[in-house]
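Margin note: ligand = arginine.
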Amino acid sequence: MADPISALTPRVQAAMAAALGPQWSDADPVIRPANKKQTTADLQVNASMALAKTIGKQPRDVAQAIAEHLEAPDLIDRVDLAGPGFLNVTLKSSWIGDEATALLDDPLLGVVQPPQETVVIDYSAANAAKEMHVAHLRTTVVGDSLARTLEFLGHNVIRQNHLGDWGTPFGMLIEHLLEVGTDSDEARLLETDPNAFYRAARAKFDGPEGAEPALGAGDFDARARARVAELQSGDPQSLALWSRIMELTRGYLNRVYRELDITLTDDDIRGESAYNDQLAEVCDSLQAKGIATISDGALCVFLDGFTGRDAKPVPLIIRKSDGGYGYATTDIATIQYRSLVLKADRALYVVGAPQNLHFRMCWAAADKAGWIQGTEPVHVQIGNVVGTDGKILRSRTGDLVSLQSLVDAALERAASVVAESRPDLDEQTRADIAHKVGLAAIKYADLSVGHDSGYTFDLDRMVAFQGNTGPYLQYATARIRSILGRADTVDPKGPIVLTEPAERTLALKLLDFGAVVDQVGITLEPHRLATYLFDLASAFTTFYEECPVLKAESTKLRDSRLALSRLTEKVLVQGLDLLGVDAPEQM
Ligand code: ARG
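Resulting structure:
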């Protein structure tokens, strides 16, 4: 890896072994970025503190001994003993420049692919015949970024869109579809405005509020209920109608995914219904193993460590007393499938934080049955998005705000921002830019804070070209492109030679990209990448303010600065792509 910490690590380990004995050759040298308030050094080596305790010496003496054996003339400029016993290391500018120059030709930009894993990612997972709302938007955006990042790291990523495509609502949805006709305009609402279709079915099911059921219409709910049973028993007509609903639903989802530039396709759909055939067996098997028992007519799993307020075990119901299976049964089947069939090393569930208990219980039950083998299940918890009033986003009717209305609002805002900033461009170009800016605003807001913390959906802030926003990073990228566009070389190769502090800071930042992406792959926290890109863009701004590029004093300097700009552009574009954000050519 080209990042300084990875480069320095084996050198310090060699010094520790030489100074203190071979048993320390692979001890953690505890290298961190230096404290910029106290020193101009780049890195701080803290190993001596812990080592001194173990070997019974003074930390300063240990540090001194390590420093004396630290030999890396290519990498290190100077080493200073500081504080109670740590080492401040200043790297050679020539080393930083050479590494940065080499990155220009590295398609992975310094990312070192770890041993390949199979990673299953469950994300998006909307519910059929209902419009996606703001919570689905966030699991879609975060899940997609993780999928892109893990793929870039070389892992075998298997996307699983666990659609809510089964259960009691399908009784009324099918009956409504039958009444309006499978090819009618009303049916097509499933593609264009699924909530409207759902509401119409629901209204028939509930009947007019407070009124006596109208003659003849009152049996809709009875038919809907009967339909659920028929569907579950595999009645061909019911299944055909269900398939039609799902076909139209896929049309809706694909439209949303394409509009939002999300990598999910039909092949990734494996909804709740896909597990139907496993559910009876899951229950029988858990009962046979003595893990599930009948309680009040329902089949339940009681697990150690999951107790309610009265200290009594909380049951995980896997078969209701009427014989129906629920959400939990399906999720025991999902982890079984993802572990034993897909052979996942990690199975990520990118789902709202409130479902944490549900997942922990399902996994504990499955694990007890021996159905999780060599797989680490992970709940990537998604926090709430709240409105500027601090409350959960709801529309005027009290429903959760729909995804489409949020996207439309962001696109509209982006269009007016772009119209204002670039009146010189033609309408089509402006529309393309506005689309990308609107998406960046939404996606970056979802990704730039910890995925488990909430944030305020504040369009004015999200769309702004200043501050830690997606559009700011797009703008920074476009600005670099415009500088490069004014140069005569298309693909400057440097070499990158560092003379000014701002150049050095920018180059060092660029060397960190690989380590940051690596960390996101381990911690599953895309906000680390977002923060990095923001810092990178800021470092570029300082560099550009302090160092003339096109008007540099010499050709050599100009070539070097152009190459530095080009590398920054590459890293920004690649980093944004991992967040699912596309940078327009100009802004
Ligand atoms: N459809 C569910 C919802 O809207 C999310 C499903 C998440 N995935 C899972 N395996 N349970 O809340």
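The radius of gyration is 29 Å.
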